[in-house]
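Whiteboard transcription, Tuesday session. T.W. wrote the structure tokens on the left side:
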């Protein structure tokens, strides 16, 4: 009798695990289809996004600045924050991360440290971690329902190949992301970045959020950002050299 009960328990656990895995896979498929489909997502080789960003400070108050972000396969990204004629740059060319920090009085390019580069590398995937997640070494789990701003949402947990975790909260009607939470484990501490996403519009047949509100915990510097994109363009010509670290001015 004990063997029979044990066998039943094992069978039930296997069925539950299989159902959970199948649900996660189905939700990923529905999310990617809602965005426009994998074929249209993969047809985008470059992205150019421009708009404004509000940067809030912990003690209250904040500033508005121009914001630009460019992405290109394979895993290239460049971000620019422009204020009073100066532009701070953060970039990653697929192997090397670098920055220019004129607001700190440093106008020459500098290499990024590993900790600084972590989030930039996570954002360099032009497709998102859900596209071909298995071949990328990412693991996806369905965690059930959650509440986001009083509304129901499906919750997915994505463990990236490097050990970082992204929680996706999907609208049950559209299956698009309404919130993501990125957890990075750095030197024994956790840095958490929450993004609220909205105002989706189609670009080359793929839906992108034109409104992004970001809150960070455990990092250094500003902790609140609100980005409003005026324009998002796909497949505009961008040379690889645009993402590479330039030589210091002589």
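and on the right, the sequence the group agreed on:
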């Amino acid at each position: 009798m004990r063997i029979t009960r044990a066998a039943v328990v094992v069978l039930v656990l296997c069925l539950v695990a299989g159902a959970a895995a199948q649900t996660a896979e189905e939700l990923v498929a529905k999310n990617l289809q809602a965005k426009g489909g994998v074929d249209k997502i993969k047809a985008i080789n470059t992205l150019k996004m421009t708009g404004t960003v509000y940067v809030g400070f912990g003690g209250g108050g904040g500033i508005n600045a121009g914001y630009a972000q460019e992405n290109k396969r394979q895993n290239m990204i460049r971000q620019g924050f422009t204020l009073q004629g100066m532009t701070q740059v953060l970039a990653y060319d697929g192997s090397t991360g670098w920055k220019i920090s004129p607001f700190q009085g440093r106008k020459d390019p500098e290499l990024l440290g590993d900790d600084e580069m972590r989030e930039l590398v996570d954002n360099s995937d032009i497709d998102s971690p859900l596209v071909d997640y298995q071949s990328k070494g990412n693991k996806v789990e369905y965690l059930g329902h959650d509440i986001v701003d009083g509304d129901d949402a499906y919750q997915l947990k994505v463990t990236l190949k490097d050990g970082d975790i992204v929680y996706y909260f999907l609208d049950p009607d559209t299956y698009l992301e309404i919130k993501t939470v990125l957890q990075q484990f750095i030197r024994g501490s956790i840095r958490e970045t929450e993004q609220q996403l909205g105002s989706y519009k189609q670009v080359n047949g793929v839906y992108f959020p034109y409104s992004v509100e970001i809150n960070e915990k455990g990092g250094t510097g500003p902790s609140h950002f609100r980005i409003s994109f005026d324009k998002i363009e796909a497949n505009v010509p961008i040379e690889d050299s645009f993402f590479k670290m330039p030589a210091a001015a002589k």
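Someone added at the bottom: The longest helix spans residues 2-35.
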